[in-house]
């Protein structure tokens, strides 16, 4: 049986998770992530959660267009949270990093 895209990426995500856990146990200062790391973290977070949200909604019989609306809402909520917490607008960050 072939592995899915998500199954292929999971070991990398778990390795990042463990590295962060190890860092927090011994950290003497902040990790100082660049703005690009915020974008990377958001893309990973949104992709994983949207995958599960989409699956749950499909299994629950939610029509496709409603699932698409929910995905758009979810993305805009993440953007708002990041903006509120960091002052960084992820849409502007994408435009600046990938003109």
Summary, kept brief:
By secondary structure, this protein is mostly helical. It is 79% helix and 0% strand.
Structure description:
There is one protein chain. This protein is mainly alpha-helical. The protein has a domain at 32-99. Helices cover 79% and strands 0% of the residues. It contains 4 helices and no strands. Helix 2 (35-59) runs antiparallel to helix 3 and helix 2 (35-59) crosses helix 4 (90-97). The mean pLDDT is 94.
Write the layout of secondary structure elements.
Elements: H1 5-26, H2 35-59, H3 64-86, H4 90-97
Largest sheet geometry: none
Q: How confident overall, as mean pLDDT?
A: 94
Query: What string, H for helix and E for strand, traces the elements in order?
Result: HHHH
Number of strand segments: 0
Separate helix tally? 4
Over the alpha carbons, how many angstroms does the gyration radius reach? 16 Å
Helix coverage percent of residues?
A: over 70%
Q: Segments where pLDDT lies below 50 for 5+ residues?
A: none
Shape: globular
Would you tell me the structural class of the helices and strands?
mainly alpha
Distance between the termini: 39 Å
Strand residue content? under 5%
Keywords:
99 residues, mainly alpha, 0% strand
């Amino acid at each position: 049986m072939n592995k899915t895209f998500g199954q292929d990426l999971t070991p990398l995500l778990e390795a990042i998770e463990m590295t962060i856990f190890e860092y927090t146990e011994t950290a003497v200062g902040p990790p100082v992530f660049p703005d690009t790391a915020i974008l990377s973290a958001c893309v990973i977070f949104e992709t994983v959660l949207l995958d599960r949200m989409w699956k749950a909604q499909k299994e629950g019989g939610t029509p496709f267009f409603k699932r698409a609306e929910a995905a758009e809402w979810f993305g805009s909520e993440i953007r708002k949270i990041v903006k509120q917490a960091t002052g960084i607008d992820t849409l502007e960050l994408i435009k600046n990093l990938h003109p």
